[in-house]
Amino acid sequence: MQQLKGIKILIVDDEPNILQFLELGLRNEGFEVQTAQDGMTAIAQMRQFQPHVVILDVMMPGMDGFEVCRMLKKTGDAAVIMLTAKDDVDDRVKGLTLGADDYMIKPFSFEELLARIYARIRNQFPNLFGEVVIGSFSIDDRRKEIRHENRVLELSPTEYELLKFMVINHGLVLSKRTILDKVWGYDFGGEENIVEVYVRSLRDKLKDKEHRLIRTLRGAGYRVDLP
């Protein structure tokens, strides 16, 4: 609870039941939480509350979530996690193009949402945590240093960013395309196989010969499993 003090989350959804459920759950986790039921209220609260993370529903009356996302990204640096009841690729692409940082399909588990919130905070606001301990890993973003089982890993800058991204998102399946976009950048023009090369190097440095830490899911990508 202590390490979450001061981290602010704004929930924007026109369904009162969802607002109440998420607000209670996130407050219990130690976050500071405010809610809004429409886009204009959300934008006003964004300026006043200055949240670190905005959980934003797509389908709202009046100003929809896409327009709210576009305006939020103009007025602040909050991470935006969009929620939608439609598993529509075009909607996801549109949201990400407008600046959304993540996307979740309703219904979703609170535990998965919480994991994605932590991932966004650690990626975009690492100084709020200082040194982050995740399972057997310790990530110090200020020193660009990762320790595994109290052993400092000798990592190149790209290896550092890749391992940090995978550990922060542990338990989630990460495709090669997602990894390339987040670690190498959206404008990377190389082959996806470069991810395999770097993962192989990380496994060597982690002494993960049996692939128990970094698992390969054939046809899907990679997943970091922590005890």
Low-confidence stretches: none
The average pLDDT score comes to 86
Structural class: alpha/beta
Strand content: 15-25%
Provide an overview of this structure.
The chain has 227 residues and is an alpha/beta fold. The protein has 2 domains: 123 residues, Response regulator (Rossmann fold, 3-Layer(aba) Sandwich), CATH 3.40.50; 95 residues, Arc Repressor Mutant, subunit A (Orthogonal Bundle), CATH 1.10.10. Helices cover 41% and strands 21% of the residues. It contains 8 helices and 11 strands. The strands form 3 sheets. It has a 5-stranded parallel beta sheet, sandwiched between helices. It has a 4-stranded antiparallel beta sheet with strand order 6-7-8-9, with helices on one face. Strand 3, helix 3 and strand 4 form a beta-alpha-beta unit. Helix 6 packs across helix 7 and helix 6 packs across helix 8. The longest helix has 15 residues. It starts with 7 loop residues before the first strand and ends with a strand. The model has no long low-confidence stretch (mean pLDDT 86).
